[in-house]
Write a structure and sequence with these properties.
By secondary structure, the chain is of the alpha+beta class. The chain is built from twelve helices and 21 strands. Strand 8 and strand 9 form a beta hairpin. It starts with a strand and ends in a 14-residue tail after the last helix.
Length: 474
């Protein structure tokens, strides 16, 4: 079997690549490891796309200029990002939505309580599942051959050029290939290897839950890095990690398992002690650091504590919290040492300096004389009923990936391949060295999926790759 362009993966980046290549006139085959009912990878769990815009645009209010987007990304990554690649992603996010609409994606204003991102993020009507379904429908109309339950375990590469992929014993040739098969977050053995054993003798990765697909095993990523010695980038312990409900399922819990009340209260560990500033910055810019913070705590568990004043100010989780009429009762119900818990809460409450509380702004409600400090939204937890949510690290996707340039070409010893490209989670580490800000994963996947698809079609036609984002009309 042969095809012009072979796309390996089935999520947003893979679909963008397949659509772009098909639009360019290439014959395209897409191999999705999951069954049809579970197609789409982690993209099926997404909700929105972070978009640069200089003026109001349909569902986006006000403006979110390039420099602000860049500063937001710079802050959450702590400088662990490639500015050229990041700005390419940012600029591409400003013009891609008309193309997305052409392929059946619809947008809607954010629902009430949706992370205060009406200005920065465009929400998909029906969520990521609707986006994925729209792209698959469009791909089928364009003649893309889609094969489910088709995991690829190895590639034939000669002198940096793609020749064929092996799928369940079948050799599939193509003139060009796009790798978009996700990270390794679902591979427990690899997570254990990356995180190792801590000073308490624990294997932290054993307590991680996976927010998304069970099919991102990292088989091709490891194959590329180890067998073919492709240039890599990123730290294998860095990932989009969120503090999620400890009762969430092992896989595919998605957005509804996230606990969004962290900034409205305090978080304590298994020893009933606080360990980080819950009010450091707006929740969309900080929610994805809390999984890693919890992963570093004893037993990889923590507890988000709020009181009645917080109810109605955050997106309610799918599971109800543990409820109590007093703080000592809550400690007992959560299995925490009552004396230490009360010492922590009493100290925090006494340290609160309440000004003009405003959860939509970086307000002046803060603590004094308490470590760690709470910088914003600090109010005493003193109004019954009280609520507690047990938290575990929820891994969305890992950042270890393949190093690329702005053509999305895979590189071998610094030399870009002529016909092998990569997009999505498999290269997101070029932009995300650590940290996260809401919706940027879809921005990266869309930008580089489209670049990879365009350039794969050019390679299949014997033409050189183009650098930079796909040009669209605003």
């Amino acid at each position: 079997m042969g095809t012009d362009v072979l796309v390996i993966g089935g999520g947003n980046a893979a679909l963008c690549a397949a659509l772009m290549a098909a639009e360019a006139g290439a014959s395209v085959t897409l191999l999705e490891a999951a069954p049809r009912d579970w197609r789409g990878g982690n993209s099926a769990h997404t909700r929105n796309l972070r978009c640069m815009h200089d003026a109001p645009q349909d569902v986006l209010v006000d403006a979110y200029p390039e420099e602000e987007f860049w500063q937001d990304l710079l802050k959450v990554t702590g400088g662990l990002t490639d500015e050229h690649m990041a700005r390419l992603t940012i600029r591409a996010s400003s013009t891609c939505r008309n193309w997305m609409r052409k392929h059946g994606v619809h947008f809607q204003p954010p629902l009430s309580g949706a992370l205060h991102v009406a200005r920065t993020n465009a929400f998909f009507m029906g969520g990521g599942k609707a986006l994925v379904n729209a792209y698959y429908r469009s791909a089928e109309k364009l003649g893309v051959k889609i094969r489910y339950e088709s995991p690829v375990d190895r590639l034939e590469i000669e002198d940096g050029q793609f020749r064929a992929a092996w799928c369940k014993g079948e050799r599939i040739e193509a003139k060009a290939c796009v790798l978009a098969a996700g990270g390794f977050e679902s591979n427990r053995d690899w997570l254990r290897e990356a995180w190792g054993q801590n000073e308490r003798g624990e294997w932290p990765a054993d307590n991680f839950l996976i927010r998304g697909t069970a099919y991102n095993q990292g088989v091709l990523l490891r194959h590329m890095l180890e067998t073919h010695q492709a240039d890599g980038i990123g730290d294998p312990t860095q990932a989009h990690m969120v503090a999620i409900d400890a009762r969430a399922p092992l896989y595919d819990g998605g957005i509804c398992t996230r606990i969004d009340c962290v900034s409205l209260g305090v978080v304590v560990n298994r020893d009933a002690r606080r360990f980080y500033d819950e009010g450091e910055d707006f929740w969309p810019k900080r929610y994805a650091i809390w999984g890693r913070l919890v992963a570093q705590q004893p037993g990889q568990v923590a507890y988000s504590i709020i009181d009645a004043k917080a109810i109605g100010r955050f997106m309610p989780p799918v599971f109800p919290g543990v409820t109590a009429n007093s703080l000592p009762e809550l400690a007992d119900k959560l299995g925490l040492d009552r004396a230490t818990f009360m010492q922590t809460l009493d100290s925090y409450n006494a340290g609160c300096r309440v000004g003009q509380f405003d959860h939509t702004a970086l307000d002046d409600c803060h603590t004094e004389g308490v470590s760690p400090a709470k910088t914003h939204w600090a109010r005493p937890i003193d109004t019954a009923p009280f609520y507690g949510y047990a938290l575990r690290p929820g891994v969305t996707f890992t950042y270890l990936g393949l190093k690329v340039d702005d053509t999305a070409a895979v590189r071998f010893a610094g030399r870009p391949s002529r016909n092998l490209f990569v997009a999505g989670e498999m290269m997101a580490g070029n932009v995300l060295g650590k940290g996260y800000t809401a919706g940027v994963g879809m921005s990266i996947g869309t930008a580089f999926g489209r670049i990879a698809g365009r350039n794969a079609a050019l390679a299949a036609a014997g033409k050189p790759a183009l650098a930079g984002a796909v040009k669209d009309e605003v």
